[in-house]
Here is the input.
Amino acid sequence: MILTLVGLSRGMVEGAANRSRSVGFDITIRPPGTSVLGMTSAPMSEKMVDFARSFPHVTMATGVTVAPVGGLDTISGIDYDEFKRMSGGYRFLSGGPFQQNDDILIDEYYAQQKNLKVGDSVKLLNHDWKVRGIFESGKLARTVVRRSVLQDVTANTGRISFIYVKVDKPSNVRTVIGQLKQKLPEYPIYDMEEFLSQLSINRIPGLSQFTKVIVALSVIFGFLVVFLAMYTAVLERTREIGILKALGATPLWVLNVLLRETVVLALIGSVIGVILTYGTRWAIMTYYPATLTQVIVPDWWPIAAFIAVAGALFGASYPGLKAAKQDAVEALAYE
Here is the structure.
């Protein structure tokens, strides 16, 4: 459970970072008071794109409109020609660019999850779209439509969610950012590396706390499960323990045997848990590849194993002590 949930958290964040990196921007301008993952409206005027283009060393700029479509899913509106000049465009697996206003471009994972192909219709935001192209995943978003059409559908005509800016030379990026911040002091303005650094588990409000809660719950449930299992095992072995103590086994020896068994079982369970994360990743990427992304987190394997062993030892301590203190005569008489 720990490895799967940590893998999901990290996978979602890394997926968003990789899709942003592939756009090829140098600077991004965000609306005041917004987070890098919470873009669900279009508060900025489209005229700000021309404003960003007016700065020295800026070679191109494009605005993107984003709208939520339910759950964690969003749909992005772009000016295809501008976006192609900045990012190189999409690599289509089938179909191609927009032809009609109601066309939608989807990535391969969205097509897989929704069982869609070129020419199919899909309803989003109470609007019927026609799949015009399916592109290779990893650039900007899962679903993309014409910006002007999305603005009209969401009643955000002439509004955008953020701006991507391209600069002529990397050495001029900090100069342009300084100029932009001077004119737009309330707007979060980042270069690519600064922006991507915001897309981490520790920078996203609540996500780090969520991981800690999951770990704590895993320890509690692990303790309860091991406690009940070991308590039952001790009761079932009462006569055996009595025989061992009658043969001269000390309480410390009995406790040592039970705790060693607990450690072995916990380590075996940890290995099985690691293997099962590959199974959960396969299931998620097969059935929900567009909604969820899970990555394998080897750096968490020793952490999860330590938690499993510690929880198991803690849960086995009381039953083990109880077994070690049993009177040999009473244990032999136990039915």
Observations:
- The chain is about 50% helix and 20% strand.
- The radius of gyration is 28 Å.
- The longest strand covers residues 58-70.
- The CA atoms of residues 69 and 84 lie 24 Å apart.
